[in-house]
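Protein: Cartilage intermediate layer protein 2
Species: Nothobranchius furzeri
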Amino acid sequence: MREANTSAACLEFKCSGMLFDQAEVDRSIISVLPQGNCRRISINGLLQEYLIKHPPVAQNNESHAFTMLAPVDPLGHNYGIYTVTDQNPRV
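Structure follows.
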């Protein structure tokens, strides 16, 4: 992305999921709400493809916000999402 006066962010999030409840699929909702002059102007193409296949239950009603379900795909790194499946909660 090459636009004047813009920057990108890398986010890390921890969802519920496999560490404590292995019988259930993690349905955590991740919401990113930029503050100040920040706003969403685009989404990584691979992540956009993931969101089309796994749409969030909550609609993205705010143009500056971003909402998605936690990835069910253990290969989320293909979409720029990294998951940890180790059973040790300290990892």
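Remarks: The first strand starts at residue 29 and ends at 32.
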